[in-house]
Amino acid sequence: MSWLNEVFQVKKPIIAMCHLQALPGDPGYKRDKGIGWVLDMARKDLIALQKGGVDGVMFSNEFSLPYLTEVEPVTYTTMARIIGELKHDINIPFGVNVLWDPKASIDLAVATDALFVREIFTGVYASDFGLWNTNCGEVIRHQHHIGGQDIKLMFNIVPESASYLGQRDVADIARSTVFNNKPDALCVSGLTAGSETDSSTLKKVKDAVPDTPVFANTGVSLLNVKEQLSIADGTVTATTFKRDGVFNNEIDQARVTAFMDVVRRVRKEDG
User: Which of 51, 86, 146, 271 has its CA 20 to 30 A from that of 80?
Assistant: First the structure.
């Protein structure tokens, strides 16, 4: 777990998502409010997350629904502008995720000095976005070609809104992914953002690859964080931090603080 300790300086880090509002080119983009409003919303959420005590933050174009598996350049260039304007406000480690385009995510990470990326790097899926294919070898070569070899890659091996083509056990997927691709971490998700990660699936993955960090990627809440952290090496968390626990709402600092208080108690109990 050396890179986790090095980057986050804590056991079992909590990476909070900073969901950007719909961007230019997205169906939900609010032209009347413009990019300035998107930036203001992101800044408010970022500050609330940091004041609430999370260990890291990851910026994503979460409201770019419906997602593309090859995004338009305006998406990641706008994200780069927003993150660039937020840089003086960011005081914890940060990463990026351009949904769902691994090359664009790495490009954005290089452009903004992000330390980590979460993406779908491997597998072929039947998904809500159509037949979803990947080419990990090409993506990793692109990462090295543009000087991003130090960026940590978090592989989501149970993607949201998708099912792996072929009858493969998740433990086998975890083992072969680690052997073939050497990910820095694996992420295990529920059906959609905010859906609880199945603890039995999480355990199967962690047992299969005990030397690789495994994150609970969705649906971690006050009610289940202790159980999830008894298995996982950290979480990627968003919806539970929002007002009333609703995906579309803004970050509620009080909910973040309450969650992180529980996390700190869990860490203390684990020694």
Answer: 51
Contacts of 264 (CB under 8 A, 6+ apart): none
Q: Distance between CA atoms of 215 and 233, rounded to whole angstroms?
A: 6
Residue 128: count other Cβ atoms within 10 Å of its Cβ.
13
Percent helix, strand, coil in the chain (nearest 5)?
40, 20, 40
pLDDT attached to residue 171: 95
Nearest one of 170, 39, 189, 173 to 100, comparing CA atoms: 189
Domain boundaries, the chain: 12-264
pLDDT recorded at residue 42: 98
Alpha-carbon gap, residue 73 to 108, rounded angstroms: 11
Give phi and psi for 33, each to the nearest 5.
-95, -30
What are the two backbone dihedrals, phi and then psi, of residue 173, each rounded to the nearest 5 degrees? -60, -45
Predicted pLDDT at 124: 95
> What are the E-state strand segments in 193-256?
214-216, 234-237
Domain 12-264 falls in which CATH fold? TIM Barrel (3.20.20)
Give me the residues of the chain with pLDDT under 70, please.
Answer: 1, 191-194
Q: Say if residues 92 and 120 touch (Cβ distance below 8 Å).
A: no
The residues that bridge with 118 in the sheet, in sequence order, are 154
